[in-house]
Structures are given as C-alpha cells and as structure tokens.
C-alpha cells in the first residue's frame, strides 16, 4: 500500500486513527529516547498505523526480542505485514483491549502507544490502561504520544509517575507521556 493510499485510509477513519498525519521521525525518535530497546525482551505497540513507530522500534530492537503490534484497521495491518516480515514482529489485527490474550503470563518491557484515548470509549480505555499497567515488568514503561496535556490526568489514574515531554517537531506538535 502506497503512502497516498495510507493517507486516504487515515482520513477516512479519523474516528479510530485520531490523527491528521502520521508520526514524524522526530516524534518517533523523541518517544523512543525513553527506552532501551536493545535490552528489551518483549515490546508491545498499540496502534501501528503506517508503521512509523514500528520502524523505529524494529531499528533499535534486539533481534532476539519480540514485538507485538496491535492495529484494528485491516488495511494498515496488511501493509504492515508486508513491511515487517521479520519472525519476531507480530502484527495483530485486534483491539488493544485484548493484550492479555496475546502475552499470557509474560511481562513486557515497554508498551508504546499512539492510541487516540480522547476518542476511545471509557470502558475500552480502562481495559487498555489496566492491562497495559499489569503486563509491564517492574521497571517497565508505558509511553504514549498525544496531542493534549490534559490526558496526563488519565495516565495518573493508572501510573504513579507520569513525565510529560513536548516536541514541536511534529504536525501538530505533540506530547510524549512517559508513565512508570
């Protein structure tokens, strides 16, 4: 699927993508600067989209580690499966509400998310946030890209510490919430 086809898909599904453009390389770099992916065993990405963040993760990930990417849009999933054929990268066409179904009793080093929590129903948000917190290793992090500082309140309901970082190097400018 070409970038123009992905953009058409993005704009025709704004209620589920919650974005007007894909994440810039600078935003991905900022998000991933709070990780040590070279030493991670299991990483989960919520909202794979066009694979911008996925590519950044794969570029830094230890080849022996596993990456699970949740994406509800079938077109994005199909494109990502072609883009990331590696055996350690699993593209999952399912809601992030079902993380536990895919990781079982394993623990996750990082949950990296670009989900549009402002648009997701409260019950689903609660399920996603609760499962994300519960699946993390003791020193694991939930890292979220968002466009509103007000979402920090949401993350503080599930995590004891949330650091908000801002970057202008994205359209629109964005926050990276690092939750411990």
From TrEMBL:
Q: Which residues form a coiled coil?
A: none
Specify the taxonomic lineage: Bacteria, Pseudomonadati, Bacteroidota, Cytophagia, Cytophagales
The UniProt record lists the Methyltransferase domain at: 43-140
Q: Which GO terms describe its molecular function?
A: methyltransferase activity
User: Which organism is this protein's natural source?
Assistant: Algoriphagus aquatilis
The record's Gene Ontology biological-process terms are: methylation
List the Pfam families hit by this protein, alphabetically: Methyltransf_25
The name of this protein is Class I SAM-dependent methyltransferase
Q: Which CDD domains match?
A: AdoMet_MTases
For this UniProt record, give its keywords in alphabetical order, as a comma-separated list.
Answer: Methyltransferase, Transferase
